[in-house]
Amino acid sequence: MAAPMLNLIQSQKQTLKISPAQIQLLNFLQLNTLELEQHIKNELEDNPILEEGPEDSKEEFDAADEGGLITKAEDRTQDYMDWDEFRDDDTPDYRTRINNFSDDDNEYTPMMAEITTWRDELKEQFHLLALNERQQLLSDFVVDSLTDSGYLNYSAGSIADDVSFTSGMFVEEEEVQEIIQLLRKMDPPGLGARDLQDCLLLQLERLQGPEVAISTKLIKNNFEDFAARNYEKLMKSNNITSDQLKSIVALIGTLNPQPVIGSQTDSLVIKDNIVPDYIITVDGDLIDVELNNRRIPPLKINKSYAKEVGGTRAANTYVNSKLNAANWLIEAIQQRENTMLKSMRTIVKLQEDYFKTGNVRLLKPMVLRDVAERISMDVSTISRVTSGKYAQTPFGVIHLKDLFTEGVLTQSGEEVSNRQIQLVLAELVSKEDKQHPFNDFQLAEMLAERGYPVARRTVAKYREQMDIPAASLRRIL
Known about the structure:
This protein has helices spanning 2-10, 20-29, 33-46, 83-87, 118-127, 133-144, 156-167, 173-183, 196-204, 212-221, 223-227, 231-238, 242-253, 303-308, 313-350, 352-357, 368-375, 379-386, 418-430, 440-449, 456-465, 471-474, and strands spanning 50-52, 278-283, 286-291, 299-301, 390-393, 396-399, 407-409, 415-417. The protein is an alpha+beta fold. The protein is flat, with a radius of gyration of 34 Å.
């Protein structure tokens, strides 16, 4: 089993014929620490031959041939030799108990916390109104038709058709429209809106102030210009000054783009903390790389179980299959660790200046093939070893995929990482005049002046990768 797996990792000629075991190992290499931990837990539950703990001895325990694991089960009759002593015991069980527990030892059932969703609260608002049974049914259906953000993407006619089809009663479009109008007056403001423009208008209807009327007019008639921040056209078409437009923009900025946000959502999303797969420490000029195996338990073969279970051909076949699976898992984990360490040490060697300082500008251009060629592995193997993996460094947790960047030739002929160009681009955007932000052509010219000749579409690609909006959306009054 070791030879095929070793050949899989070290050979670069595996594109034509790959066995199922090799495919399984490739998928195994792609697991991160959390996924591997869960995989081991599942294997421990499914495979009785496998157990946690270091190997007791160096004695190998291999699967047996057709003859079976053992010829005779171990004699366990001694465990039942005292049965006659208790067979005729007619003492009730409760008389053998000792009541030596205090009141403080009582166990209580923990209280259950009930979570009320925003949909339940909204239905409760409808139930407080003087509605008949038919209207209550329609209100529940309309609430369930809302999106998770509180928008209503269905027309009254389509909802009426759905209710008629599912409930078996004919519903008029006007009946649903009455419920929708009630919904649009409930809290939070904006419920039942058709789109963002409608959502903002519903919220403005409940506000008071000198800017509310002109804000409503602006959103109703010039919403596209407002979204594109075409401020000159807005001031001209609405006959307002720059100061008035600033107040209007500030007022609209206080509105919610979604009726239901934050804690009002009916689902609680829990994100696992990032668990690094590698731990990198720097001591002067020395950089040490180790795997984060604190969550991965050591595994061994449960030899006693394998010896006790046997006797029949079917039992031996079952034990042998579980034994082979356990041996494969233990060997695959070892191969995974060796491959990951070899790959990470090569990456650290290629990016030594970066790991010593943490300065992103010192990142050198590096692709997967650069690592694969230095350790004689396939590019797909390096991709699986680094995909979804993180490393703990003295300057924080980093995603390994962020270390792989393409190179760009500067005007001096030096090859630099595109990450360095992105940092210069972000610096230029941060220092621009927000009333007159730079467009992509101007940014490309400024980068060229600094020695980074890149095209306008390349600037646009870098800007999108860094979530920097276009010039029109970065503009403020």
